[in-house]
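Weekly modeling sync, notes
Attendees: S.R. (lead), two postdocs, one rotation student

Agenda item 3: backlog of single-chain predictions. S.R. asked that every request posted to the team notebook include the full sequence so nobody has to chase files. The rotation student volunteered to paste the first one in as an example of the format we agreed on. Action items at the bottom.

Example entry:
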Amino acid sequence: MLCSTARILDTGPSPMPEHTDTAASAPNGITRSHHATDPHQTARMQARVVPMPSQSWRIPNDGSDKTNKATKKLHYADEKPKNNPYSRKEVTYVCETGTDLCAVVGGIFRRVREARELGEAHGKGVEARLDESSQAPTTMRQTQLCVIPNCEEIAKFHPFDMLVQSINQARRSARDFVIEKKGGAGNDWVVSINCAHLHPEFGEQSPKQQLEEMKKEDEGGEIDVNYKEFKRQRDMARRSPYPSVIVEVQSTPPADFGARSEEAAMEAAAKLQNAKREAEGVSSDDVQKLEALFRMSAADKKTSSDGDFYDALGEAFGKKQIASQTPLNMAQTWVLKNDPKFNKQTSQFTTSNTRMVDQAYEYVFNTMAMLIAENDSRKGQTSYIVLPKFVPTSATSFDRFAGQISNIIRAIPSMKDKVLISTYHPEHVEKSTQSPVPILVLTWTK
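Predicted structure, as returned to the notebook:
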């Protein structure tokens, strides 16, 4: 997953094409999609960000439908895809109405996860239809714009820019993680997700950055006025009324080097072999009848000797109940014995069965937001996040995952000195940190 620049242009007001709105609610926001309905118009549309008066973009805190009316100020214009490389088939608007930045970060990762799942579902659906139709597989491309109107911590451009850069860095580092991915149709498809951002003060430099730029200009001797104007217009094109994140997903079919024809030939050969077996007189119905006969003979056979044997075992070892150990119970037992920071009065345990990186980031930051909402001051407390199915065979991947969480936390102004991240993992070199399942530890310092 690579980071790319948002392909949204500031071209001024344009007439609104005919469209229909379909709204769907989300757990942390409001969603609205726009689709073209005129059959004579092309299906692709170009998103144009139009600066609006501040009052027309005033979004209430209650998350009502007025938010959707405000997001409709982003205009569309139909363009032919051959002439416009920035055209999009569909753009969806969502609104993160939360005020806590940890919850907002969790919401951003949720949008990334949903985009990945959408791309994977497209690949599986196309693979399932390939046998029924002779059409070539199609590429899916969709864009989502997430507006964040109520979070005061990202009202300035520099903190917001640092946050989005740290999120993209975490997504890039995930390419080296050892992930246990489930097999199935559509896994060969390439699902790429790009994440960019817009801001009312996009491109504004801090005094330190301005001083560095002036020094470079003095050293260079010449100033390219045209290039400076180009940079100014580029920054203006990414200025939106509110801080926003753009998530774009593209699902591309795998390259066809003749593998599909070989698979089709193998399937045809298997069908022919099954037909020959049925022609020889042995069918699946005959096999089912034989299985039914064996089941009946096993049920009628008396096994008194076997029963006496197991009864004798029960008397020798006593009647004991076998209780299955869950990963959470295993983690709690190990922490109780090996972690001196554990306090049975204040420590908390949470668990998730996620396998994917974006979903793990989402769970961690949503858990942190939940803990902060319950009690803002947790100085000296320890929280344990148990992730039994997330990189269970790679301690290096889990440590890098924890390191990227620390980088994102440092980009959050209210959290950078509030919590420390550490890990326990079954594959750690030191025995003192070899837990039965991966555990992420949050140590609260404030």
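Discussion: group reviewed the output briefly. The first helix runs from residue 66 to 71.
Action items: rotation student to repeat for the remaining queue; S.R. to check formatting next week.
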